[in-house]
Amino acid sequence: MDSNLEKIEELFEEGNLYVEEGRLEEGEAILQEVLRIQPEHASALNKLGVIWALRKEQEKAREYFQQALEVNEKYFPALTNLGNIYLEQDELGKAQEYYEAALLYNPDYGPAHNNLAVVHKKKGDLNKMVGSLKRAKKAGTLTIDASKEKSLLFNPGCIVFLVMVFLVLIIYFIILR
Predict the structure, then answer these.
(1) What architecture does CATH give domain 74-177?
(2) Beta strands 153-154 and 144-145: pairing type?
(3) Beta bridge partners of 97
(4) Which CATH number fits domain 1-71: 1.25.40.10, 1.20.1250.20, 3.30.450.40, 3.40.50.720?
(5) What residues contact residue 83 under an 8 Å CB cut-off, 6+ apart?
(6) pLDDT in tens, 105-134
(7) Which residue, 57, 56, 55, 53, is CA-closest to 78?
(8) CA of 174: how far to CAs of 49, 161, 167, 170, in Å?
(9) pTM for the full predicted model
(10) Helix axis angle, 58-71 relative to 76-88, nearest 10°?
């Protein structure tokens, strides 16, 4: 691999790690450095959008997600993240469009299935919700955090998943049978 590409990927991974640790300013600075070297780095653009979404700056986040899609229109994480913005704004139709678009490019992308299940739940379509949850589970998005500082904790999205599955099973066995 070219040394410049290696440097870019190392910087991206470092910036991404900072974001995952909640160190947004440091992550942003490193991701901006990635863009100075390679302005069309879709992953860096998308991750900068995530930073702005975490800061509750939805318009700025949307700009970065759209820039990532200008670089790569099939970049399914950015499509999913745009769906998340619309879901937060309770624009369920637009959110669903973006999640489904992400799944066209990667049918096994768990976050899109998870969030599509939320859209179906909000629309009251429990059958579609269960289908999306099953596909999310198959994609392996049910994770457990086993860090040393914490006891085993479920990812909050997983807790929602488990509660929704439990409720659907109750509805199915009690009401529909």
Answers:
(1) Alpha Horseshoe (1.25)
(2) antiparallel
(3) none
(4) 1.25.40.10
(5) 94, 95, 96, 97, 98, 99, 102, 112, 115
(6) 999 999 999 999 999 999 998 889 888 888
(7) 53
(8) 44, 20, 10, 6
(9) 0.77
(10) 160
